[in-house]
Amino acid sequence: YHLNDGSYIVSLESIVKRKFAIEDGSTIIWNGDPLDAEISIDAVYSVRTSPINLVADQITLSESEKNTYKQRYLFLVLLKLRGDILHPEISFEIQLPPEDKGILGGKVNAKLNLLNEDPSALNKQVFALLVLGRFVQENPLQTGTSDGTSALVRATVGKFLSAELNKLSSKVVPGVELNFDVRSYDDYESSQAVGRTQVDIGLKKQLFNERLSVQIGGVVDVEGARAKQNSLSDVTSDVTVEYKLTRDGRYRLVGFSHNRYAGAIEGQLVETGVGIIYVRDFDQWKEFFKTLKQQK
Fold first, then answer.
1. How far is it, in rounded angstroms, from Cα 123 to Cα 91?
2. 157, 169, 6, 145: which is closest to 79 by C-alpha?
3. Domain ranges of the chain
4. Model confidence over 184-193: pLDDT tens digits?
5. Residues paired with residue 268 on neighbouring β-strands, in sequence order
6. How far is CA 286 from CA 6, 82, 248, 249, in A?
């Protein structure tokens, strides 16, 4: 079987929840027994951050060069599942998008190639990207800038603030599911450190006895130069409408319109589409295949 789409959620307590998108071309190969299968699944999580802490231990940078390395770029965290479906081997990689591999003279990509050969260092950086949304140096208390401790605190506090906002929203706005993700960091687009805080806002409402679900989301700036440029379209840039075709919700019709960053060349793109979803809950693979046999 070839997997065209899907997702895998990585969750840590109530602070971190990251969605990895399964890449087209992933496969599941069965050998007769439904539980005897070989998987080769790749999933990716995208994070935008600066590479300064990634390379600071290896190269000496002047003040002007540091500012260029403080600019934020898109990095891809790859999750790889290989082998037996019940006991897969799990590994990670961190990559740049193909169109960005030449940024900063290729030094960042060269460092990533070395990092991917060192499992211990790689796992530390993967954890930092998923939890803090940034790279860390070999000594986590160091950063590539004199104000690095402040930036580290910004990122950490942002994650805890996200968790607290999510808890509060469930009590204040009954009947509406609100989700927040606060990202606070120093922005170096102007070659100088400027504090910037963004809030990802997600709203979900169930209608018609929970047969219809409407999700609206977007990103707004609450600190920095762009904070005064927010508009309603920023909050409603992502829209997903889902309708349960059957009462048990097993078959669903979904339509969506999402804004997506496609790299330095393409920039922001708008994706729209419709599809049919089949939903099945199970604790073990054998339960899933047993149900399929009963249906036949």
1. 9
2. 6
3. 1-145
4. 666 666 656 6
5. 261
6. 20, 20, 21, 22
